[in-house]
Design brief:
- The complex is a heterodimer of chains A (114) and B (111).
- With 114 residues, chain A is mostly beta strands.
- Helix content of chain A is 0%, strand content 56%.
- In chain A, a hairpin with a 2-residue loop joins strand 5 and strand 6.
- The radius of gyration of chain A is 13 Å and the shape is globular.
- Helices cover 0% and strands 58% of the residues of chain B.
- Chain B contains no helices and 11 strands.
- In chain B, a hairpin with a 4-residue loop joins strand 7 and strand 8.
- The termini of chain B are far apart.
- Classes of the chains: A mainly beta (114), B mainly beta (111).
- At the A-B interface, strand 5 and strand 10 of A face strand 4, strand 5 and strand 9 of B.
């Protein structure tokens, strides 16, 4: 199973809502990532979990809160978002932290903040 | 200057053409060089990666890295309409999880 799954596929939320994005992989990968991608732009790294520990936080606003409950699951908790946070949120995983081989991206969650 | 520069295109070629996609970079610490393909409304798919300099071939795809010039290329031979997508170059330092992407080049292969 070489797949990263993400739910939901689409999410519309108001600025006062709290929601969560979920990512799952069962490939035994030990590094998992959250990226944000605006239309016609490349992905921007938000968070990296390496062996279930947060290793990089790219100065992301605190309204985004990551969580890695176990080696297969990655969550992104959202609270008090702004309309400019509307984007495609991509999860990725790789076999080993720090190496790109066998890195897989999920299909993304398309988030709209109203 | 951006760390990774990539011409966003768009690039349009006839079916069967050889496609050349390129990126330049400024950080000499990059050791891993990747090419991703992203179809509309999908996540990026890793096509090829190269460690340090040299060439790598996989079917119709060839990746080249010239570290002395800080220049990487992806060649697609016998291009097909199904190759129409955005191609992103990406780079990483050794043992570092921070991947830097180029802007992506949108390619259309016309039948």
């Amino acid at each position: 199973d070489t797949e990263v799954t993400q739910t939901p596929k689409h999410l519309v939320m108001g600025m006062t809502n709290k929601k969560s994005l979920k990512c799952e992989q069962h490939m035994g990968h030990r590094a998992m990532y959250w990226y944000k991608q605006k239309a016609k732009k490349p992905p921007e790294l938000m968070f990296v979990y390496s062996y279930e520990k947060l290793s990089i936080n790219e100065s992301v606003p605190s309204r985004f809160s990551p969580e890695c409950p176990n080696s297969s699951l990655l969550n992104l908790h959202l609270h008090a978002l702004q309309p400019e946070d509307s984007a495609l949120y991509l999860c990725a995983s790789s076999v080993r932290p720090g190496q790109p081989d066998e890195q897989y991206f999920g299909p993304g969650t398309r988030l709209t903040v109203t | 200057q951006k760390e990774v520069e990539q011409d966003p295109g768009p690039l349009s070629v006839p079916e069967g053409a050889i496609v050349s996609l390129n990126c330049t970079y400024s950080n000499s610490a990059f050791q891993y060089f990747m090419w991703y393909r992203q179809y509309s409304r999908k996540g990026p798919e890793l096509l090829m990666y190269t460690y340090s300099s040299g060439n790598k071939e996989d079917g119709r795809f060839t990746a080249q890295v010239d570290k002395s010039s800080k220049y990487i290329s992806l060649f697609i031979r016998d291009s097909q309409p199904s190759d129409s997508a955005t191609y992103l170059c990406a780079m990483m330092r050794l043992n570092n999880n921070d991947m830097r992407f180029g802007a992506g080049t949108r390619l259309t292969v016309k039948p």
